[in-house]
Design a protein that fits this description.
The protein has 3 helices and 34 strands. It is mainly beta and about 425 residues long.
Length: about 425
Amino acid sequence: MAQFRSKPFGVTKNGDKVDEYIISNPGGLEISVLNYGCVIKNLFVPTKTGPVDVVVGHDTLADYEADFNSSGSTCCGAFVGRYANRIENAEFSLSGKTYKLEANNGKNHLHGTFPRKIYDVKMFGDTLLMETESPAGEDGFPGNLKVSVRYILTPDNTLRMDYRVSTDEDTIINLTNHTYFNLDGGGNVLGQKLRIYASNYLEGNNEPCPTGKILPVDGTPMDFRTGKPLGRDLDTGFYQTTMAGGGFDHCYVLDRPRGASQSLCAWASSDKTGISMKMYTTQPGIQLYTGNFLQNCPSPGKGGVPLEKYGGFALETQHFPCSPSHPEFPSTVLRAGKVFRATTTLRFFTGKQCGITLTDENTVRAQSGASLAQLCSFALENSLSGLEFAYGIPGTVGGAVFMNAGAYGGEMKDVLI
C-alpha cells in the first residue's frame, strides 16, 4: 500500500496555503503533488544507480506562480482545463449562443485557469483525491462545474490519473495533465526514444490550430509508429515542425481498439537511465510537445537551472484542440446533469533488480548471467506478451513463449506487441 506524508510548500500571493503531498510505494516509485493546480512536482523512478526525477518543474511556489501567470506559461506538471489546448479565436457556439473566452494565447484561448486553482485534498488507500469547483463564467465558459482529480499509485510502479467533472448547464470540457518528462533526469530529451500508437495526426496552421485535415503520418517526420529518437526529425524542413518552432506541437489521432476502456498510446525510454514509460488512456488524442519554447519560461527549473529548449516532452492525452470549430471531431460537449470521465495511466520500469532494461519498444537488454526466470519475470511484470531470444529452445511461462539463449545476454526482440 502507498505511504503518504505532507508538508507546507508556501503561500500564494492571494494568501492561500499550499501543501506538498508525497506518495511512495514498495516498488520505489515516489511522486510529490501540490494542491496548487494538482501539479506533479517530482516523480522519482528507481534505477540501479538510485532514484531519478523524470519530470520538469520548479523548486518554489513563487516560481510556479510566476510561470503559470506569465503569457508563456509552461503549465509544467499541472492539471489543465477547462479546455486543454486551444480554442480558435477564443470563442465557441453552443445551443445557439456564442461564448467569448479569455484570449490568452494570441487571439486564441489556451488551457484555462485550472493550473492556478487551489484544490481540497483527501488521502486514502493508494489515492490522493483533489477537488474544486469552477463557477459559471470562469474564463467565459457556461456551467457550474464540480471537478475531481485522483492520482492513484499502485505497487507495480503505476500512476493512474482519473478525472471526473459534472455540470449544471451545457458546456464544453477538455482535460489533460501537462507534465514534461525527461527520462534522463536532465539535459535535453532529443536522444530519448518515443513511440506513439497513431497512424494519423491533425494538420496545424501557424497559430497553431488544426486546419481540420486529418493526415496520415506515413512517410513524414510525424511518424512515431515504430519508435525513434525525439530529435531525429526535428530539423528536416518539414512545414509542420518548422511552423511549430522547430519541433513537435501536434495532436495525434490514436489507434484505439474499438471498445477498449484504456489502450496503449505511447512508449518512451532512456538509454542513459534504463527507464521506460508506457502510457495508456481513454482519450481519443495525444498532443506531443517537445518543449520548443521552454527556454522562455520566466522561472528557473529545479536547482535554479534555467529551463532549456527541448528540456522536456509533454504527452497530453486529450480530446482534439479547437473541437468546437470542427464538428467532424469527437464532441467535447458536456450536457447538464451528465458526467465527464477520463483516465490516463503511466507505468514505469527499469528491470533494476537483475540488470535487465527495455531500451526501446522492441528491445530488451539483459546482462550476461541473468537467469531465464528473471527474464520471464521481467517480461510478465512489464506486460510483454512475447519475447524471442536470438538462439535456443522454447519455454513457456504464464502463457508467453520465450526462447532460451543459454548465456542470457544480448538482445531479445518483442515479437507479439
